[in-house]
Amino acid sequence: MTAAPLAMAEAPAPPGGMTDEQARDPDHFPGFAVAIPLGIQHVLAMFVSNITPAIIIAGAAGFGYGSADQSALLYMIQMAMLFAGFATLLQTVGIGPVGARLPLVQGTSFAFIPVIIPICAGRGVEAMAELTAAALFGGLFHMLVSQCVGRVRFALPPLVTGLVVLMIALSLMRVGIQYAAGGAAAQGTPAYGAGAGWLLAGVVIATTLGLSFFGRGLWSTASVLLGLLAGYAVAALMGRVSLAPIGAAGMVMLPDPLHFGFRLSASAILGFCLMGFISAIESIADVSAICEGNAGRPARDAELIGATAADGVGTAIGALFGAMPNTSFSQNVGLIAITGVVSRHVVTIGALVLILCGLLPKVGAAITTIPIEVLGGGVILMFGMVASAALSMLQAVEWTQRNMLIFGLALSLGIGLELEPGALAHLPETARIIASSGILPAALIAVALNLLVPDRAGR
Description:
Elements: H1 20-23, H2 32-61, H3 71-92, E1 106-108, H4 113-120, H5 127-145, H6 158-180, H7 195-214, H8 218-221, H9 223-237, H10 244-248, H11 266-295, H12 301-319, E2 326-328, H13 330-339, H14 344-359, H15 361-368, H16 372-394, H17 401-419, H18 429-436, H19 439-452
Antiparallel strand pairs: 1-2
């Protein structure tokens, strides 16, 4: 699940002299004068959310901010950009039955992080070999799911999907606070929790909120990115920024096959496959939102199947080069509603920009110069928005005693097992890792009980 935009506005009149019919047509090309700035706007809207999972995973594994060698972190950031662009092209251009041929922007998924952290925690770069294999098999499974996901949507009502999204947010909120306080590397030192770090996080939060509430157009759409830039500027004035990594970075970075190696892990593969099913449902929702809310028609079966298949293909191919799973980004669906332009060619231009950034390591090196406290401010906001999106989904639930018990049990066990993984010490390794992720046991409990427990009202 991805963060929703902080602010929404009524769609303006179509730009560039387009008619309303042309603006709602995914196949209409509005001309480069309109398509290029709108494509870049799509990149700005998703940029921070796309690279943040790579930074969180690297930090959990122990080679993130503050580590002596950040080459692996830089590589992960570059691959996040490169394969987000590649997967987006799969959606907008398509190859045979793969791709919705709609303006769907793909990016690295937050949903997998609660499963990834128990697998790679403190294990360094070698854990990435297991994640590579898991992402490959998870992507292949995702492709298979695309053929039947429409027929099993009945098992995932808002009670279940809202719970899953809420669990994702709750599982990751601790990361935002940790980053704002100075990061895991600073824990146990006087620098952890220092006022200067919280000041930087506060600048990001205040700037983002101000632009989101009072800004218009690009100022509001890219508010999180602009908030990070404001925090970065203040950090530079405080002498907290070093540009040395940019000068040391090369000019071009090509993807390296099996960069982190390849190692099978039953728990990682099972976890990624289960989360792939949840990610497929998210893409279905995004396709429906574009077609029904913006194009003015229901989504076609070929679009639903193609979108989820592109998720899987993009994830599987990206995994071969060390990229993490991708999914459609909901904030870009919201951006389409704001601009009123449904052209897939606009998003194709954004995809090409992402691919270009992914090939230029100086872009990734510049990202690694952002102080972790600045990033923390953005992460706090993003996961708060994910939680808000979950609560919005849960508004559709009728809170009968049955639904309250199902939700409460799944939430309690999911969070409890994540907070106290030692309670699972006697389980086999695979079951222990999956259960301690929190999100997977919560989702499985909710799905099972929702199917098995009868609704007394007969619904």
